[in-house]
Amino acid sequence: MDKKIEKKKFPLKKIIPALLAIGVFTFLISAIYRDAGTSRLNVEKERLLIDTIQTGPFQEFTPITGVVQPIKTVYIGALEGGQVEEIFVEDGTFVKKGQPLLRLSNSDLQVSYLNQEANIVSQINQIRSSSIMMENQSLSLQEQALDADYRLIQSKRKLDRNRDLVKDEIISKVEFQENEDEFNYLKRRTKQLKKNLEKDSMFQDFQSQQMASTLDLMQRNLAISKASLENLIIKAPIDGQLSALDKEIGELISKGEKIAQIDLLDNFKVRARIDEFYISRVFPGQTGSFKFANEVHELVIKKIYPDVTNGSFEVDLIFTSTPPKTIKRGQTVSIPLSLSTETQAVLLERGSFYQTTAGNWIYVLDPTTNTAYKKEIKIGRQNPKYYEVVQGLKPGDIVITSSYENFNEKDKLVLK
Predict the structure, then answer these.
(1) Which parts of 278-363 fold into alpha helices (H)?
(2) Low-confidence ranges of the chain (pLDDT < 50)
(3) Residues 337, 273: contact at Cβ < 8 Å?
(4) Among 415, 309, 351, 386, which residue's Cα sits nearest to residue 49?
(5) What angle do CA 132, 135, 140 make, to 5 degrees?
(6) Which 3 state secondary structure label does DSSP give 81?
(7) FRET partner for 32 with CA separation of 20 to 30 A, picked from 139, 179, 228, 361?
(8) In what order do the strands lie in the sheet with 398-400?
(9) How far apart are CA 12 and CA 15, in angstroms?
(10) If we measure between CA atoms, which residue out of 324, 342, 341, 344 comes closest to residue 333?
């Protein structure tokens, strides 16, 4: 008797396709759900600039451009005006202190000096004449005083003799009284002459002082005039290299006009312009460096000029060690000027993305899916090479640093 075979309700051949269909359907549903509300853009990976976030030393600095100048420059001006009569040295010559550079002529100064000299000679002659007259007057008073003293002594002797004679009635009382009157007169005269001598002596002292002061003043004025004449010969104030001497024979130069300059070339400095944005962050003592002849040379800010012109201000930097031997005045050097001390930080390479995001977000790559997604970040300090990442990124993250201009701020980028 035959056995009845029952058919299976779900054969294996039908179960497998069904399961595959269910899986595909589930994946599609989950993908649609996952990407719901997400905008995406396909981009070519070869056109992107990519940076890997890392930790390293960070220091704020700003690049500045400086010009090499002599450590000291002395400007030479005309102390007196005049016409260039002779030029002793050529521009660019190394000169010594006190060496004549050029000579001016000024007829007014020369005439004035001669007139003052003549006046002084005249005054000296007058002073000498007055001095001789005073000496003669003094001698005359002294002779009168001596004569009065002598006559007083003689009169006293005669009076003493006649006093006894009048008692004996050898001479008359009238004669004795005459002798007595003469003695008293000579006595008063002698006293008066002594007073006159004292006053004359005081007057002579006063006059001598006045004449000496007048003579000294005139001599000083003459010395000033002579110095003015000597200033017509312009001399080097220091040792150094003469430059900017562009005067010609016969050229008129005004008083105070700049004639040339002398540069002290035993050392150099660098004068640089800095954007006014950094004026509150630049101080004496800040350092910078530049590479020259395969060597790095350190500089330090010595002086800050407060005037701001055309959006920038100037600083002077000096070398911390011996300047390069082959460096020349007028050379231009690029200097990264330090604005902070060196610290460890999470570093993000600078890129054009910042112009779109202002540093508030960035595209982070997911190597497993070959996509990039937006992520909020926070940037702190920055220098010409790096941004300091304060929040949102960690070392090892891969980010896109090139321009986002054509991405339209899509939420996701699909890399092709």
Answers:
(1) 354-357
(2) 1, 31-34, 36-37
(3) no
(4) 351
(5) 125
(6) coil
(7) 361
(8) 40-43, 412-415, 371-376, 361-366, 398-400, 50-52
(9) 5
(10) 324
Q: What is the pTM of this model?
A: 0.54
CA angle 362–364–38, rounded 5-degree value: 85
d(Cα 244, Cα 109) in Å, to the nearest integer? 27
Half-sphere exposure of 348 (CA within 13 A, CB side): 30
The pLDDT tens digits of the residues spanning 286-306 come to: 999 998 888 899 999 999 998
CB-based contacts of 243, cutoff 8 Å, min separation 6: 91, 92, 260, 261, 262, 263
What is the layout of strands, in order, in the sheet containing 54-58?
54-58, 343-349, 386-391, 378-382
CA angle 38, 42, 43 (to 5 degrees): 130
**Residue 307: alpha-carbon gap to chain centroid:** 11
What contacts 383, CB < 8 A, 6 or more positions away? 58, 59, 60, 61, 62
Pairwise CA distance, residues 325 & 241, whole Å: 17
